[in-house]
Amino acid sequence: MKTIELLFWIGLFVIFYAYLGYGILLFALVRVKRALRKNNPTNSNGYEPEVTILISAYNEKDFVDQKVRNTQSLDYPQEKLHQVWITDGSDDGTPDILRQYNGVEVHHQPERRGKIAAMNRGAKLVQTPILVFSDANTILGEKSIREIVNLFANPRVGCVSGEKRIYSKDADSAAGAGEGLYWKYESTLKKWDAELYSVVGAAGELFAIRTELFQEVEPDTLLDDFIISLRTAMKGYTIQYNPQAYAIETASANVQEELKRKIRISAGGIQSVIRLRALLNIFRYGMLSFQYISHRVLRWTLAPLFLLLILIFNFILFFADATFLDPFIYKILFYGQALFYIAALTGWFLENRKLKVKALFVPYYFFIMNLSVYLGFKRYLKKQQSVNWERAKRGE
After folding, report:
1. 199 near 193, Cβ under 8 Å?
2. What is the pLDDT of residue 182?
3. What total number of domains does the chain contain?
4. Which of 106, 223, 239, 292 is the most buried (most CB within 10 A)?
5. Which residue blocks in 51-169 are alpha helix, DSSP H?
6. Angle 161-154-48 from CA coordinates, rounded to 5°
7. How many angstroms from the chain centroid is the CA of residue 122?
8. Domain annotation covers residue 49
């Protein structure tokens, strides 16, 4: 019984630390750093290198006009801003539509080999010092490229991540409300991560690297943005974050579509932890390893596992006669867990009803997020996740 009691508290601590405790600790460390050393930003005045925006697109005809015009309207010298589209496998007319625009470079192969193969091929064609990756179905903020480039004025910066923003309505479904709140919290953590040392992974909707640092990624890679950015950091550079550089997209159409996306990400997360296992060596990578383990690894491994185990352990301790702590504590904690899952079930019941009280959907989204880790792990073990994944449907 003592072993179960010990494991229960270890599990509870891991869950708290992974989702809230690290954020609290991170905030405290950032405050200490601010107090000890004043921030001396690198002067970026006049720093305007040539930039290439690389867009890997598969059957994106519905977004082509919007994306091209958005890119051409960005606040950056157009003679220094290049658009390169890789449309491999597209059979809906995407490459033909793109060729109608001036200043757009299009490369097409009939075979579809996945997004990462397109990125690998496209990166070899880039001749500018800064390479920006962006998705075809996202809209960039007007000053996004300039805000990204400014951070590269610091030679220690090897990668810059923009912010993913979810288009939010007054009343959202469970997917929209949960995803929107989750990304607001994640954006705050990323700002603090960057201020402390480095972000641990870039947002695929908008991120950039120094072209010379791009390292070809394995063709079966599921989380290309995560692997590319962290391998850059492992070379001794930092990943910085600028929320003023942002990409906007609509939320998943419903929770089923969001679950589909989360399962793919979770399968990719397990794959990434294995491929980046060297980064678990905190004696070699120091602060980067600490941030990586705290912010990413725990959420893809121990935290979801302990969510299930502490429920089982708590049930056992609920009826135990002799525990190290007052048995009443375990009864309160068990009722708290039960209340959480009841709230998640309520979220499921209200899933497709649009409500202004978005917090009602948080337990449900949190449950779905952790369920996806189990399903993603299963998919990874069975090698059922293809790089030619089906994009989740987005809301109107």
Report:
1. yes
2. 75
3. 1
4. 239
5. 61-72, 94-98, 115-123, 144-151
6. 80
7. 22
8. no
